[in-house]
Amino acid sequence: MSAQHLASPLHLGSLVLQPVSDGVLNLDPAAIFADAQPEEWQPHVQRDAEGRVAIGLTCLLVQAGDRRILIDTGFGARPDNPAVGHLAEGLAELGLSAADIDLVVVSHPHGDHIGGATTGAGAEAHVSYPGARYWLSRADWDHFTHPDVLPQRVGLEDKLLPLAKAERLDLADGEQEIAPGVRLLPLPGHTPGHMGVAFTTGQEIAIYVGDMVHHPLQIDHPDWCPTFDALPPLSRETRRKLIERARREHALVLSYHFPFPGIGRVGGTWEPV
Questions:
Q1: In the predicted model, what is the mean pLDDT of residues 3-28?
Q2: How far apart (Å, rounded) are the C-alpha atoms in residues 255 and 208?
Q3: Is the full-model pTM beyond 0.85?
């Protein structure tokens, strides 16, 4: 098992949750901690020689009965950035190919989450997971396909429209169970229809939080929004409620951007497990 792409699977009742890395993204910390003063975050954040922060890109493969569910698809192939686009390698290490995936959940249509949903460009663009249904929130579909928005997002047309053209797209309104114990969870603010995924079995719960948090410091400072949040006031409210729920229910938290594998619980602060 490659330390680079895979972590040990988590077992939640009959569900198997397998983190799979798409790589690492290096960002300007000013974009992540836009709401904070430098002295508030600098002592706690490791940076590289160029002053950037490395954030994870952790997709999640879920085995729910006889269904394989992929949550977020990473960047897809990016020859211009060899540090990302490694999801397919991780799946291959598990003995799986794109054809083995039954459902794909796109938490929101930003490039590091939807990039691998399709392959090719223009007339050649096609779904990457040929046997899968794709789930996206209706709010994000309506927002990002609006004629005033879609042309402003370079490459997004090649990621969204082929899903509908192939008749593989399902749009979620509110909470929706997509498999036993697997429920789409609206977490709006980062985008209008950003979604997480809740996994429940008996009294146990785990929550995939997508981009509601980009760095562990946001657990202590839920009011800190990155520049990427489309609706900061809503994002702050959603983040506070999510963190309170995770703490109250002792939920296992599965993050996309925390250091791989990005798994922990919310006690007094972030507690990696």
A1: 92
A2: 6
A3: yes
